[in-house]
Design brief:
single chain, mainly beta, Neuraminidase
Length: 353
């Protein structure tokens, strides 16, 4: 329910085997898959790890040797755990708006360094860097994006080229690359390609495609998994291509557009689709629900699809618990997750080899 509430805020602010095709230009590729294309299916059973803390988490990030977990309910809002034994080694993140302080940790992003993580604070458009090895509770460094251009950016993820890949709620472009000073370096994609013939303001297109933005600078991938449509928009920063993964039921929830140009979800058409994504060197993992939205509360996301970086479906993992955030370690052959069914605990699945 915490995730659903956050998406509601986004809608107010904004006031996917097996066959592929190109649409619009040579840099936009569509890959469709259906349930019939999923040949390799595994049923997984969870293990529970007690994190030895009264946490209220809803996001985690896998680092090289550590797991970073947020906490919505305490003053120290970021916790690092040793992956070898799950002992907590550090808690950091002082809540506030001062230098080195942070306000929220709903979105994590990778850093070039293996045991560091960036957090994005939506209120003030600030990126803060934390390390599992730091001595202080304050952020090691931060980027305050005070330029006016950043206030039109809802998501921002750092690249390895001293820039940000952003999603702008007032632009028809799907992805915008900004320098740290707020200058536009390049724009990529066009939301109107997904809705040919519809004449809508950019805020409407942005609002209809929301999800938990994820990135992997090491793999040059920036991914938007859409929550109300079974679409994942995968931007490759290296070759500048966008792969649109569509499936397995090829459904889009419908919206009414208000006079102000903001989308209002039509509940009778609402299905829950992609809740989160995890990126590895060779694969993309999408956490999926597929349930009709009004039937149950919560995400009810119990399916993980494994794709290659070209968007081809390879496998499915059926889970026995619903996850709201997850990360896949192919090095350890594990899936780490947080579930609204066992709050405050870490859920682990063995990843089939």
């Amino acid at each position: 329910m915490r995730y659903l509430a956050y998406l509601t805020i986004i809608f107010l602010i904004s006031s996917c085997g097996s066959n592929s095709s190109d649409e619009g230009n040579n840099h936009y590729h569509i890959v469709h898959f259906s349930e019939a294309d999923i040949k390799d299916v595994h049923h997984l059973k969870h293990q529970i790890i007690d994190l030895n803390a009264s946490l209220n988490p809803n996001a985690l990030m896998l680092l090289e040797n550590h797991l970073a977990v947020n906490d919505l309910g305490s003053d120290s809002i970021l916790h690092f755990y040793d992956l070898s034994n799950f002992n907590k080694i550090k808690k950091v993140g002082v809540r506030g708006n001062g230098p080195g302080e942070i306000t929220d940790t709903w979105l994590f992003f990778e850093d070039e360094s293996p045991n560091k993580v960036w957090t994005l604070q939506m209120e003030n458009r600030k990126m803060s860097l934390f390390s599992a090895n730091q001595a202080d509770a304050l952020a090691e460094s931060e980027i305050q994006t005070a330029n006016e251009a950043f206030f039109n950016a809802f998501y921002m993820a750092p690249t390895n080229d001293s820039s940000f890949i952003c999603m702008m709620f007032n632009s028809y472009h799907q992805f915008t690359e900004l320098s740290h000073s707020g200058d536009t370096i390049a724009t990529y994609g066009d939301w109107r390609v997904l809705h040919p013939g519809k004449k809508l303001p950019p805020t409407a297109f942005f609002g209809m495609h929301q999800g938990r933005f994820a990135s992997s600078p090491q793999n040059s991938l920036y991914i938007l998994p859409c929550y109300t449509s079974d679409i994942m928009e995968v931007f490759n920063h290296k070759n500048k291509n966008i792969t649109s993964i569509r499936g397995p039921i090829n459904h889009r929830s419908d919206y009414a557009i208000t006079e102000e140009g903001t989308p209002a979800l039509k509940l009778d058409t609402w299905y829950k689709h992609y809740a989160a994504v995890s990126i590895s060197k060779d694969h993309i993992y999408g956490l999926y629900s597929g349930e009709k939205g009004v039937l149950k509360s919560g995400l009810n996301a119990k399916r993980i699809f494994r794709f290659n970086h070209d968007g081809q479906i390879l496998s499915e993992y059926k889970l026995d618990l619903s996850l709201e955030s997850f990360q896949v370690s192919e090095r350890h052959n594990k899936i780490y997750g947080l579930s609204d069914e066992v709050e405050g605990k870490l859920v682990i699945y063995d990843l089939p080899i």
